[in-house]
């Protein structure tokens, strides 16, 4: 949460120090009533880590929406559905 606050306040150096050595973040889409995953926030996160994974997503429509927003991975109890959704997105022109 400290990294999130640093990013929101525009303290990129502090966020970079907090996230140093992190290759990926696994976060919920929302926490404490705050949306952590949105296009502007993904861009902020991605300045400091290579991948953003969102947990726990079990609905195909939510999986599709999140991947289309630009998340890199989804933590789910329904890997079968996630594979179907991801495959359908990759087939699109």
UniProtKB/TrEMBL annotation:
Looking at the Swiss-Prot or TrEMBL record, what is one Pfam family this protein matches? Answer: GDPD
Under Gene3D superfamilies, the record lists: Phosphatidylinositol (PI) phosphodiesterase
Transmembrane stretches, start-end:
none
Give start and end of each GP-PDE domain. 1-86
The cross-references to InterPro entries, in alphabetical order and at most eight, read: GP_PDE_dom, PLC-like_Pdiesterase_TIM-brl
Q: What is this protein called?
A: GP-PDE domain-containing protein
